[in-house]
């Protein structure tokens, strides 16, 4: 339900706030007072194209903001997918249009695109008028409208699950049945790539090992020089000048005074242990410079050659050996798919046949329920059209089987009408006039609206060109719809206005040389006066006031 609307700088409205209630709300006012501003403001919130010409003269922006509550669960899920929180089932939509033509759209404070706004708003509000064609010209909506009326959603969901699986296997089969020459060419490429990689016998981590060995060999002379020095210093010095020899001699010297200096024994033992440890370190240093007898230059050439092989593979298949091996495994899986495609295709064909059979059965069940719903709804809509003084208009919802299965079933649903006797039934978008369209649309909504899921419907001057008697009947139908969803109606008809639960007056006056429009909720006496004005024009008589009073009293009974 639309709970409130805030307007800034739109046409003749400087600023206005409207609090809407449930049931049926009407907005009236003299021609030019600014009733269309309400529609323009709501249109801004639906993602409809709005020209910057709506911006009030002299201002740099126009703004429309609305608060909706009672948000349906499907919309909550959709908003969640967009990262929008919906606390307490409330949605706040803000659309700001600047004088340079830029739009800023926010839903609960989060910026969204115009396309997202359209998807969001269509679950919150619908706008209808004598020139409105959105609902009746959009044939894709016919199926949803019929399914909503017939409570067909559970059957449609069951069918849709089967269809989704069917569509998946059809796509898989289509991919397998791609051009045979392309498959052969791809197979040759994959076989070459796998053979090319396998022939090089790559090992994960090999490149790092080779690079380290390359660095060592490039510095072999420097390494050997310092290792030899370190070895000689520790254990291989001439004339007994190495560390191990000196430690051993020092230990022996201390042993000779143990009998007179007992504490020297412990120091002597530690020095001898250090001598052994130094000898061990000298052996380890010698091992670091071990020579396998191979020419370092020749070994370096071999490493360079191997690294070049790896580099060549990296240029073709991946950034490192791990990526190259992963590429190879992926190529092997793709090759297996190609080689097994004939066998897999037969499996897919069998699965598709089974799913098509199940889908057709589910579609048949769904179609029967749709046909029953269509027949019932057609009769009810005809009754409403007759009530709205269109007794000669024929209307029918037709459900015909299609050759192909579709995501919504195997049906084509049409709304057909004949507005004059003797004329053939045709799609109503082809033949209905503006005035006829408004009443046909109202008839459809009065029958289907209870289940269409939209919490607020706006009717813009659908009484144009219609007699007072028929207008009253339109008002009655709007009142009936308002039992199930909120109705906002911009009208010039006293017959409709006096049926409202809430009545707003839109008026315009001059302030400081500029036009200002205001919007206010009317009390009972003010409603009578406004309805009398609509009935009588400039000079209001007591008879007109009494007529207005009688219509309101009749509504309140």
Description:
By secondary structure, the chain is of the alpha/beta class. It contains 20 helices and 15 strands. It has helices at 35-46, 73-81, 114-121, 134-137, 140-149, 153-176, 180-199, 206-218, 220-236, 243-255, 264-288, 296-317, 321-339, 341-387, 428-431, 434-448, 468-481, 494-497, 524-536, 542-556, and strands at 2-10, 13-19, 24-28, 61-68, 91-98, 103-107, 110-111, 125-129, 394-406, 409-418, 426-427, 456-460, 486-490, 502-511, 514-521. The chain starts with a strand and ends with a helix.
Q: How is the secondary structure organized here?
A:
Elements: E1 2-10, E2 13-19, E3 24-28, H1 35-46, E4 61-68, H2 73-81, E5 91-98, E6 103-107, E7 110-111, H3 114-121, E8 125-129, H4 134-137, H5 140-149, H6 153-176, H7 180-199, H8 206-218, H9 220-236, H10 243-255, H11 264-288, H12 296-317, H13 321-339, H14 341-387, E9 394-406, E10 409-418, E11 426-427, H15 428-431, H16 434-448, E12 456-460, H17 468-481, E13 486-490, H18 494-497, E14 502-511, E15 514-521, H19 524-536, H20 542-556
Parallel strand pairs: 3-13, 3-14, 8-12, 12-13
Antiparallel strand pairs: 1-2, 1-4, 4-5, 5-6, 6-7, 9-10, 10-11, 14-15
Helix pairs in contact: 6-14, 7-13, 8-12, 9-11, 10-11, 12-13, 14-16, 16-17, 19-20
């Amino acid at each position: 339900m639309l709970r409130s609307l805030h307007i800034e700088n739109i046409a003749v409205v400087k600023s206005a706030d409207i609090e809407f209630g449930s049931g049926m709300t009407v907005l009236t006012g003299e021609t030019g007072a600014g009733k269309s501003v309400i529609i323009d403001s709501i249109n801004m919130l639906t993602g409809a194209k709005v020209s910057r010409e709506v911006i009030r003269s002299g201002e740099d922006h126009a703004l429309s903001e609305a608060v909706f509550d009672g948000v349906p669960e499907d919309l909550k899920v959709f908003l969640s997918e967009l990262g929008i929180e919906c606390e307490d089932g409330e949605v706040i939509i803000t659309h700001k249009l600047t004088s340079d033509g830029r739009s800023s759209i926010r839903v609960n404070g989060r910026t969204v695109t115009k396309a997202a706004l359209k998807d969001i708003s269509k679950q919150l509000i619908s706008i209808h008028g004598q020139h409105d064609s959105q609902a009746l010209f959009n044939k894709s909506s016919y199926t949803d409208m019929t399914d909503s009326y017939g409570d067909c959603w559970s059957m449609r969901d069951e069918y849709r699950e089967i269809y989704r699986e069917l569509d998946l296997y059809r796509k898989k089969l289509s991919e397998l049945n791609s051009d045979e020459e392309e498959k052969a060419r791809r197979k040759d490429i994959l076989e070459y790539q796998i053979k090319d990689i396998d022939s090089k016998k790559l090992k994960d981590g090999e490149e790092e090992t080779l690079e380290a060995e390359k660095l060592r060999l490039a510095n072999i002379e420097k390494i050997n020089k310092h290792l030899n020095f370190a070895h000689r210093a520790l254990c291989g010095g001439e004339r007994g000048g190495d560390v191990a020899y000196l430690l051993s001699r020092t230990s022996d010297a201390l042993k000779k005074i143990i009998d007179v200096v007992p504490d020297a024994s412990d120091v002597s033992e530690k020095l001898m242990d250090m001598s052994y440890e130094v000898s061990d370190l000298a052996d380890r240093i010698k091992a670091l410079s071990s020579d396998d007898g191979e020419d370092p230059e020749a070994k370096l050439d071999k490493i360079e050659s191997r690294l070049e092989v790896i580099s060549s593979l990296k240029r073709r298949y991946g950034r490192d050996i791990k990526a190259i091996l992963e590429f190879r495994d992926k190529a092997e899986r793709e090759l297996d798919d190609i080689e097994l495609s004939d066998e897999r295709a037969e499996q897919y064909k069998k699965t598709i046949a089974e799913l098509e059979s199940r889908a057709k059965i589910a579609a048949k069940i769904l179609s029967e329920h749709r046909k029953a719903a269509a027949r019932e709804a057609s009769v009810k809509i005809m009754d409403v059209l007759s009530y709205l003084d269109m007794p000669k208009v024929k209307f029918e919802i037709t459900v015909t089987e299609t050759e192909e299965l579709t995501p919504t079933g195997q049906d084509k649903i049409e709304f057909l009408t004949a507005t004059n006797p003797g004329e053939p039934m045709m799609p109503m978008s082809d033949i209905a006039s503006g005035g006829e369209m408004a009443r046909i649309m109202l008839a459809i909504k009065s029958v289907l609206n209870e289940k269409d899921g939209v919490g607020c419907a706006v009717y813009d001057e659908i009484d144009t060109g219609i007699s007072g008697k028929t207008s009253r009947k339109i008002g009655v139908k709007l009142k009936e719809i308002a039992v199930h969803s909120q109705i906002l109606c911009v009208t010039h008809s006293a017959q409709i206005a006096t049926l409202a639960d809430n009545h707003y007056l839109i008026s315009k006056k001059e302030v400081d040389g500029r036009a200002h429009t205001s919007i206010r909720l009317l009390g009972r006496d003010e409603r009578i006066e406004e309805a009398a004005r609509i009935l009588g024009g400039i000079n209001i008589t007591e008879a007109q006031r009494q007529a207005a009073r009688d219509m309101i009293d009749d509504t309140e009974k």
